[in-house]
Amino acid sequence: MRALLAVARVIVWMIDALCLIAMVTLAFAFFLLMFGANPTAQFTQLVYSVAKPFMAPFATVFPGQFFALKTGGGTVVGYVNLGIVVAFFVYAIVSVVVSWVYTALSRSYYRRQAQSSLARDVTAISAASAAAATSQAQAAQAAQAAQAQAAAPPAAVLPEPLPFPPTPAAAEPDTPVPYPPSAPPPAPGGPA
């Protein structure tokens, strides 16, 4: 749709430019005819030749009227053709209507685009908000669990069990093993 609007914009610009050229040349032709411009002058011939195709559909709408104006230097003969005025207003209306239709269509399209973009943004924000609320709830639960654990009395620590039966300590080799004092030491030659 965006490409179609771009093409329509170019067409609207072309129609506006054509209507502007038509209105300017018709206005010049109207005033040149009304004030009796010299028809053999090059500028007058140029204006009439450019205005002729734009004036053709409206040439017979109103009959033209010659008039004479007496001035201090003589008489000026002019020609009033109200068909030129009608043509001027028709081209102005065409330009305005075409521009208005294009503007209405493009605004409608861009309004729909903005609404769908807004809906997508609202959905994304809602999802992010829900995710943030969930993570806040989880963080609150973790904090409560940590507080509950900190408030609980410490568990009794049992000592590590000793090996059973206890192993005797190894005697050092240079150390004599004491005998009980009531027993006599063994005789050097063997038992008696």
Core attributes:
two-stranded antiparallel sheet, mainly alpha, 192 residues
What does this structure look like?
The protein has 192 residues and is mainly alpha-helical. The protein has a domain at 2-122. Helices cover 61% and strands 7% of the residues. It has helices at 2-34, 42-55, 82-151; strands at 65-71, 74-80. It has a two-stranded antiparallel ribbon with strand order 1-2. A hairpin with a 2-residue loop joins strand 1 and strand 2. 10% of the residues are buried. The model has no long low-confidence stretch (mean pLDDT 81).
Number of strands: 2
H/E element order? HHEEH
Q: Spatial order of the strands in the main sheet?
A: 1-2
Helical content (DSSP H or I, runs of 4+):
55-70%
| Sheet of most strands | 2 strands, antiparallel
What's the alpha carbon Rg, rounded to whole Å? Answer: 56 Å
Shape summary: rod-shaped
- Total number of helices: 3
List the helices and strands and how they pair.
Layout: H1 2-34, H2 42-55, E1 65-71, E2 74-80, H3 82-151
Antiparallel strand pairs: 1-2
Helix pairs in contact: 1-2, 1-3
